[in-house]
Amino acid sequence: MSKPQVVFVLGGPGAGKGTQCSNIVSKFGFVHLSAGDLLRAERSKPDSMFGELIDSHIKNGTIVPVEITCKLIQNAMEASAASRFLIDGFPRNKDNMIGWDTTIGDQVDLLFVLFLECSENVCIERCMKRGAAGSGRADDNLESLKKRIVTFVNDSMPIIEYFKEKNLVKRVEAEKNAEDVWSDIIELFKNI
Ligand SMILES: Nc1ncnc2c1ncn2[C@@H]1O[C@H](COP(=O)(O)OP(=O)(O)O)[C@@H](O)[C@H]1O
Ligand SMILES: Nc1ccn([C@@H]2O[C@H](COP(=O)(O)OP(=O)(O)O)[C@@H](O)[C@H]2O)c(=O)n1
């Protein structure tokens, strides 16, 4: 049997990863796994051993240890019969990358990395708006956002650079309106 296919979806906080992943799911039949959503769901379980740890990382905009995140992704992949996955918000730092490579990496076929490029200011503005509209997220506030941006620049951008060197990055200009970003993404997915 062939390996499941994976596209990693990366970009700063509020770059539009979730928005565009749901478009890709509708049109191209991928299953969307958001590392952030999986962590938030784990944090909310009353019997989770990791609830407090996850909560503190999310509020501080820092990255949860990969053993936790990778296991959640792996469980979600196993629970799904799908053959194509969008993995959103992962890998986000070197620890995520190493954890993935040494566990599931060999068992999947990484197609490419979709990078939604968006300036800091626009990222902050979108997340603040999302918070004001009632996202209920503990990290859609200015204090957490500043930390999330620092983590993105210092820890996540080097991962995107690493994938660029391997010619695996497909970049999209994510500051345009959501419909125009989506048109660009269709071009990247239509022939795979
Ligand atoms: N291209 C866009 N232009 C303006 N707002 C957008 C765009 N894409 C997404 N948004 C809005 O910005 C916020 C963050 O988008 P989201 O998809 O949740 O980003 P991420 O998953 O990268 O954090 C949401 O409120 C969403 O509706
Ligand atoms: N691979 C990941 C993804 C998210 N996270 C945590 O979850 C938070 C929210 O991530 P997210 O992908 O849902 O949201 P955005 O910051 O992209 O809007 C991050 O700031 C991290 O604290 C993590 O620790 N490891």
UniProtKB/TrEMBL annotation:
<dbReference type="GO" id="GO:0050145">
    <property type="term" value="F:nucleoside monophosphate kinase activity"/>
</dbReference>
<keyword id="KW-0547">Nucleotide-binding</keyword>
<keyword id="KW-0808">Transferase</keyword>
<dbReference type="GO" id="GO:0006221">
    <property type="term" value="P:pyrimidine nucleotide biosynthetic process"/>
</dbReference>
<keyword id="KW-0067">ATP-binding</keyword>
<comment type="subunit">
    <text>Monomer.</text>
</comment>
<feature type="binding site">
    <location>
        <position position="176"/>
    </location>
    <ligand>
        <name>ATP</name>
    </ligand>
</feature>
<dbReference type="GO" id="GO:0005634">
    <property type="term" value="C:nucleus"/>
</dbReference>
<feature type="binding site">
    <location>
        <position position="96"/>
    </location>
    <ligand>
        <name>CMP</name>
    </ligand>
</feature>
<comment type="function">
    <text>Catalyzes the phosphorylation of pyrimidine nucleoside monophosphates at the expense of ATP. Plays an important role in de novo pyrimidine nucleotide biosynthesis. Has preference for UMP and CMP as phosphate acceptors.</text>
</comment>
<feature type="binding site">
    <location>
        <position position="130"/>
    </location>
    <ligand>
        <name>ATP</name>
    </ligand>
</feature>
<feature type="binding site">
    <location>
        <position position="148"/>
    </location>
    <ligand>
        <name>a ribonucleoside 5'-phosphate</name>
    </ligand>
</feature>
<dbReference type="InterPro" id="IPR006266">
    <property type="entry name" value="UMP_CMP_kinase"/>
</dbReference>
<keyword id="KW-0418">Kinase</keyword>
<keyword id="KW-0963">Cytoplasm</keyword>
<keyword id="KW-0665">Pyrimidine biosynthesis</keyword>
<feature type="binding site">
    <location>
        <position position="137"/>
    </location>
    <ligand>
        <name>a ribonucleoside 5'-phosphate</name>
    </ligand>
</feature>
<dbReference type="InterPro" id="IPR000850">
    <property type="entry name" value="Adenylat/UMP-CMP_kin"/>
</dbReference>
<feature type="binding site">
    <location>
        <position position="40"/>
    </location>
    <ligand>
        <name>a ribonucleoside 5'-phosphate</name>
    </ligand>
</feature>
<feature type="binding site">
    <location>
        <begin position="62"/>
        <end position="64"/>
    </location>
    <ligand>
        <name>a ribonucleoside 5'-phosphate</name>
    </ligand>
</feature>
<dbReference type="GO" id="GO:0006207">
    <property type="term" value="P:'de novo' pyrimidine nucleobase biosynthetic process"/>
</dbReference>
<feature type="region of interest" description="NMPbind">
    <location>
        <begin position="34"/>
        <end position="64"/>
    </location>
</feature>
<dbReference type="GO" id="GO:0005737">
    <property type="term" value="C:cytoplasm"/>
</dbReference>
<feature type="binding site">
    <location>
        <begin position="89"/>
        <end position="92"/>
    </location>
    <ligand>
        <name>a ribonucleoside 5'-phosphate</name>
    </ligand>
</feature>
<keyword id="KW-0539">Nucleus</keyword>
<protein>
    <recommendedName>
        <fullName>UMP-CMP kinase</fullName>
        <ecNumber>2.7.4.14</ecNumber>
    </recommendedName>
</protein>
<dbReference type="GO" id="GO:0005524">
    <property type="term" value="F:ATP binding"/>
</dbReference>
<dbReference type="InterPro" id="IPR027417">
    <property type="entry name" value="P-loop_NTPase"/>
</dbReference>
<dbReference type="Pfam" id="PF00406">
    <property type="entry name" value="ADK"/>
</dbReference>
<feature type="binding site">
    <location>
        <begin position="14"/>
        <end position="19"/>
    </location>
    <ligand>
        <name>ATP</name>
    </ligand>
</feature>
<comment type="similarity">
    <text>Belongs to the adenylate kinase family. UMP-CMP kinase subfamily.</text>
</comment>
